[in-house]
């Protein structure tokens, strides 16, 4: 009975056309990104609720630098996607590697430098500091998604190096790039909320 059921399931799976399967994959990805949007939207709302019209006095140059790095990475991610659709494997591989490198630089700037030099901390004298808590939670949650994107792109690069992707099979690349663009868009909202909007307060707050 188990063998018959498995065989029937396999036949049903084979009945799904490639076009239908691609549609289902895209629908699943977008539903996932919509759910992620609610997560980041809630985090953004908490920033304005707890900080109001104020913000920590963060390093403006660093904030702008990591933002530019992430935006440039989206250009290379899109370049990789277009290249694989035209079977340009050389451009695809180089663009993916550049995207990964820029993603790592972004993480180094946010986690390696911003966290180390931030004028606020999550806790002060054993009590929660809302400025530090929101700053570290927003940047930490976003950095986690960037790290996830870097890992996914590394897997895509490895598979691409083995010839897995081409003009007839590029869904994995498309999905990874869409996810990367989504993470970039989130930072487009996080950056002004953290670095630009509100009156800066001193380190003692």
Describe the structure.
It is a single chain. With 205 residues, this protein is mainly α. The chain has a domain at 61-198: Four Helix Bundle (Hemerythrin (Met), subunit A), CATH 1.20.120.80. The protein is built from 6 helices and 4 strands; from the N terminus they run ααβααββααβ. The strands form 2 sheets. It has a two-stranded parallel sheet with strand order 1-4. A two-stranded antiparallel ribbon has the order 2-3. It is elongated, with a radius of gyration of 21 Å.
Give the % helix: over 70%
Distance N to C terminus? 67 Å
Q: What would CATH call the architecture of one domain?
A: Up-down Bundle
Low-confidence stretches: 6-12
Overall pLDDT score: 90
Structural class designation: mainly alpha
N-to-C SSE string, H for helix and E for strand: HHEHHEEHHE
The CATH class designation of one domain is Mainly Alpha
CATH topology of one domain: Four Helix Bundle (Hemerythrin (Met), subunit A)
Counted beta strands: 4
**Main sheet, how many strands, which sense, barrel?**
2 strands, parallel
Over all CA atoms, what is the radius of gyration? Answer: 21 Å
Full CATH superfamily name of one domain: Cytochrome c oxidase, subunit III, four-helix bundle
Gross geometry = elongated
Short description:
With 205 residues, the protein is mainly alpha-helical. It is 78% helix and 5% strand.
